[in-house]
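Appendix B, example 12.
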Amino acid sequence: MTPPPTGTFHQDTAKADITIWKEALFATDILLLHASPVYYGLGIPHGDGSAVVLVPGFLGTDTYLRQLHWWLARIGYEPFFSGIGLNAECPNLLIQQRLRRNIEAALDDTGKKVHLIGHSLGGIIARAMAAQYPSKIASVTTLAAPFRGTVVHPTILAAAEAVRKRILEEHGPSVLPTCYTGRCTCDFLSSLRRKLPARVLETAIYTRTDGVVDWRYCMTGDSSRDFEVPGTHIGLAFNAKAYNIIAERLAEVHSGNTSRNSSLHPM
């Protein structure tokens, strides 16, 4: 399937011709992370105490993002979990009823605009949140997040359809009939179709060896915002090179320099 033009969103879901078994190699990403100086805060810029809210991926909870949470605290940020519970719910409801509440708490706690980091579906939710409330968001970083269209492995499509049926059964008329599809007209999908304002620093980290989603749908199309790293889809939550990019990009915000750092390499 051909990716949509730069800056647009493809509303139809599609099966990606990718090999999911390679995702078992995510354990390698964890080992390499713990062997990297980056994990211990060496050789990277440190934070200014700003809040960073982490959003987990499809069928995930905040628990698996603990490594990223601990690391952010170690390098000088105030990390917060999303508080959304299991990410298997209408994204529009998750934003309005749970994620927004935690972002408000992060704002109150630090008095500074909040950074958002989302993995996979969590990245899509984070990006939508940034588009809806840009005055509260300093930056948004997506990790293997197909925010330009749902082109994923057939196994994931089947799981998503099962979640969609449960959402419709549980919420009935309180959600739209097209909920959990790219054709929904809710605020969540509408915000994905909007460009983020320039004052919100956007970073899209992806891997060409992604075994879950088509990596081409995880990019903005702007080489100053797109960063390729080696690894797996799952492993991007534990990827040393991704952590290095995160540290550099977050520092650009509090240093007032929003141009591409020369130490980072384009896609």
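Confidence is low (pLDDT under 50) at residues 259-263. The first strand starts at residue 10 and ends at 15.
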